[in-house]
Structure formats: structure tokens, C-alpha cells
Design brief:
Radius of gyration of chain B: 20 Å
Structural class of chain B: mainly alpha
Strand content of chain B: under 5%
Number of helices of chain A: 4
Structural class of chain A: alpha+beta
Oligomer: heterodimer
Order of helices and strands of chain B: HHHHHHHHHHHHHH
Shape of chain A: elongated
Strand content of chain A: 15-25%
Largest sheet of chain B: none
Helix content of chain A: 25-40%
Chain lengths: 158, 308
């Protein structure tokens, strides 16, 4: 078996008249296997890890990173620290969520799509890529739900 | 030895020597080594999902490149057939063509950040929030469609053999691989002064307002220094990576095509007089000023800094 593989490898390196399509297909397959091997190595080494929002200051920095100049005035953190809501003095609200080993933020522009269930708030930003996020905010959930009702109502929801 | 090199150079000029495939095993080994470094020093420097997306973008880009390489070479060949002069193939012309091609890369790259049409095919390279060697391979699938190759093949009209352009372009690409890392701090001062380095290129991948739209260089950072687009990395402003509006997804299709879709939507909705602006103005431009460009972001940040 290994002998056949060596013969095949030698044939490919020598690139005889086996046709460019076969060469390309083989190179692509080998590349794909290498890609998967690297991905497996990243998983085995546990890269990325389990990142969380450390505290309110961290959430404020994440908001500033997502929207340069965003000055956080009010912050509430998810109990598991996987997300946060951040409001500035002008009343703009950012939703921060984990994305792999980093965080992303999106502005909440409407209270449509926000649902309160005791201690959890489920939020949609209107950005399909950002998706829907459920935050466990404890007692803050009801307070923030009430304040988020002041966000503009989109025209189509009126 | 010298005869062998001369023969190789001559054949490369005539047929083109695609050096990138020879470097791929080195890319893979280097990524594996950087991953081991990350596991010990900075585990969040890599994210498996992000890495998989980057590498598959690289693989897709290679396939797309194979499909369109013939057309690009045909274009370069046509220009060369109608050349005004002929550049001889000598050791000094190889060096001159390498430098010229790097300058052309600078022009392309600057355009790729300042013209949304070109940005649409380049944004994928910046869409990772990580900065590691796998990010280097997060390459475009749509470069040919954006016609960005025109920046690199025009010297054929002035007598540079297409094979030389292909060869030096590949070397340029390989050089840029190693600068996508956080594992290297600063290189010696003389090297930082002339060459593009991890430090300079980290700045280029930054979303910090201070750093946005700087350091477009490929191999030689001197182009940025000459044309006023250079800014150094600062220890008091750690780089945050990605794009102004982070994608928040590892989806290949989103990474590869999202900006094209956004352009189409914007042009569809825009008033007639503004349509071309959404195609040819800088990313973030809008006819009613409702969006942010890098210029407005930086201006607002500077104003805030002044207030502090």
C-alpha cells in the first residue's frame, strides 16, 4: 500500500502527462486535508478558550472598540458574562456579545424584537448577521426592558 | 550554480515561475509552530473557527486563482505583444521589476481601502478579529472580478515580461505571510525603517481610529513613508483587529461576498445621482452623510481626545 502511495507521489511530483485537472484536484485535496489538520490542531491545543466579559470597565472598552467614541454611562452584564448592554449619555444602546474568542457589538435601534421573561432579555438588533441574543440580567432585566421601550419604533412596526 | 540560477531566471521570465505552491508547506509548518506558541503564551491569539474560515478562504482563493490565471496571463501577454520597449532579463531588471511591482501593490492596496469597488474584494482579508499567520491566508475569492490585477500587469505594456511579473508577484505574496503575527514584536530599527514588518502591518489591520487606513505597503514600508500613509504602532494604543463593523460570523459566504451584497443593496436603494458613489467612493460613504467613513471616525476620535 505504502509502495503504491510512493509511486503515486513520485508520479505527481514528476508531473508526467496525467493532465492538469488531476494535478489540481490532487493539490486541492491535499490542501483541504492540511486545512483540516490545522483546524484539528487548534482544537487539540484548546486555542480560543472561554472568554468572558470581566467587568463593567471591560464592557465599556468593548463598546468603545465596537463604536469608537462610545462613552458608556450605564452597563448591565449577563450573569455568565457572555454579553452586555451598554448605554451612553445620548441614550444609544449597544448590545455586546461573544464571537469566538472576541466580542462584537451592534446598536439597538428599536424595541421591536425585545422580549422580557423574568430575569432574561431576548434581543434582536435588526442585523441578521448579529443574530438574536438572550441575556440573563437578573433584576436588571425588568429595569432595562422598561427603558428599552423608549427606543424608536421602526416604521414597519407602527 | 550561477549558470543554473541564470537558466532558472531566464525560464521564469519566459514562462513565469509560480513560487507560491512551493511555500505552502512552509506556511503550514509556520502556522503549527505559531499555534504552539499561542497555546503557551496567548491562547486567544487563535480561534479554531476563525482559523478554519481563513484557511478555507485561502484554499478558495487558490482555486479561483487557477480558474482566472489564464485570463490574466492572456491580458498581460496581449500588453507585452503591444509593448513600447523591451526590458532585458538581467539581474538588475529582476530587482527593478520587483521594486516596481511592490510599488504597484502599494497603489492597488491603497485603492483597495479607498474605493469601495476594490474594497469589496479585499475586505475579507481584514474581516478576522484575530491577527496570526492564518489571517495571511484569508485571501479574496473575487479579486479577478474587481479587475484589481490591472494594477500589477500594466508594466507588460512597457516591456516587462509577463513571466517576471508573475514571479515577483508570488515572491511579494510570500513575503507578506510572515508579517501577519503578534509573536514578533519589533525588528531591528534599520529593518523597520525600510521593510514592512509585523509591527507595521498590525497597524494596517487595526480598527483603532488612530491607525485606520495606514501602512498599505507590501514588502517595502518606504512607500507609506514617501506618500504620507505611514503611522507607527504605539505601545500605549494596543491594536484591535478586524473591520469597523465586525462581521460577527465565521460563515465563508458572508466573509467572501458580504460587501458585494451591501453595494448592490445600497445602489438599488440610492437616488439615481448617488448610485455610483456607493460603488466608487470610500467605504462608509453615504449620500446623506448618515454613515461613518474612516475620515469621520478619526475626526470624531480626535475631537474626543481634545476634550479629554
Amino acid at each position: 500500500m505504502s509502495g503504491k502511495l510512493v509511486v503515486l507521489a513520485e508520479a505527481l511530483f514528476a508531473r508526467p502527462d496525467i493532465g492538469p485537472a488531476l494535478i489540481v484536484a490532487t493539490e486541492t485535496l491535499v490542501s483541504l486535508l492540511m486545512v483540516l489538520a490545522i483546524y484539528a490542531l487548534a482544537r487539540i491545543l484548546r486555542l480560543g478558550g472561554d472568554v468572558r466579559i470581566a467587568d463593567a470597565d471591560h464592557a465599556a472598552r468593548l463598546a468603545d472598540a465596537a463604536f469608537p467614541g462610545f462613552a458608556a454611562a450605564e452597563i448591565t452584564l449577563d450573569r455568565a458574562r457572555i454579553g452586555a448592554l451598554v448605554r451612553d449619555r445620548a441614550g444609544r444602546v449597544l448590545l455586546i456579545r461573544r464571537h469566538g474568542a472576541r466580542f462584537v457589538g451592534s446598536e439597538l435601534t428599536s424595541h421591536a424584537g425585545i422580549r422580557l421573561d423574568r430575569h432574561t432579555l431576548t434581543l434582536e438588533t435588526g442585523d441578521r448577521r448579529f443574530g438574536t441574543l438572550t441575556l440573563d440580567l437578573g433584576a436588571d432585566a425588568q429595569i432595562w426592558a422598561a427603558s428599552l421601550r423608549r427606543l424608536d419604533v421602526p416604521e414597519h412596526a407602527a | 550554480m550561477s549558470v543554473w540560477i541564470a537558466d532558472l531566471a531566464s525560464r521564469a521570465a519566459r514562462d513565469g515561475l509560480d513560487v507560491v505552491p512551493f511555500a505552502v508547506p512552509l506556511f503550514i509548518v509556520a502556522i503549527a509552530i505559531e499555534m504552539v506558541w499561542a497555546a503557551r503564551r496567548a491562547p486567544t491569539a487563535y480561534e479554531p473557527g476563525d482559523t478554519l474560515t481563513s484557511l478555507l478562504m485561502g484554499l478558495g482563493s487558490s482555486i479561483a486563482g487557477l480558474v482566472v490565471a489564464g485570463a490574466i496571463l492572456l491580458g498581460a501577454g496581449w500588453l507585452y505583444a503591444h509593448r513600447m520597449v523591451t526590458v532585458p532579463v538581467t539581474w538588475w531588471s529582476w530587482i527593478a521589476v520587483f521594486v516596481l511591482d511592490d510599488f504597484n501593490y502599494y497603489l492597488f492596496h491603497r485603492s483597495a481601502h479607498r474605493v469601495r469597488w476594490f474594497w469589496a474584494s479585499h475586505v475579507n482579508h481584514h474581516s478576522s478579529q484575530h491577527y496570526n499567520l492564518s489571517t495571511a491566508l484569508r485571501q479574496t475569492w473575487t479579486g479577478f472580478a474587481s479587475l484589481s490585477f490591472v494594477f500589477r500587469i500594466w508594466p507588460a505594456l512597457f516591456g516587462v515580461a509577463p513571466g517576471m511579473l508573475l514571479t515577483v508577484g508570488g515572491i511579494n505574496l510570500i513575503y507578506q505571510f510572515w508579517i501577519h503575527t503578534e509573536a514578533v514584536g519589533r525588528m531591528p530599527r534599520w529593518f523597520e525603517a525600510v521593510m514592512n514588518t509585523p509591527s507595521h502591518h498590525r497597524v494596517h489591520h487595526a480598527t483603532n481610529p488612530r491607525y485606520l487606513d495606514h501602512n498599505y505597503a507590501g514588502v517595502f514600508i518606504v512607500w507609506d513613508r514617501l506618500f504620507g500613509s505611514f503611522t507607527p504602532e504605539r505601545d500605549d494604543d494596543p491594536v484591535r483587529y478586524g473591520i469597523v463593523h465586525q462581521l460577527g460570523t465565521f460563515s465563508l459566504w458572508t466573509v467572501a461576498l458580504h460587501e458585494w451584497g451591501a453595494i448592490a443593496r445600497d445602489m438599488w436603494r440610492a437616488p439615481f445621482r448617488a448610485k455610483l458613489g456607493y460603488l466608487l467612493r470610500e467605504p462608509g460613504w453615504s449620500h446623506d452623510g448618515s454613515r461613518d467613513t474612516t475620515t469621520t471616525i478619526r475626526a470624531r476620535w480626535r475631537a474626543a481626545q481634545g476634550e479629554d
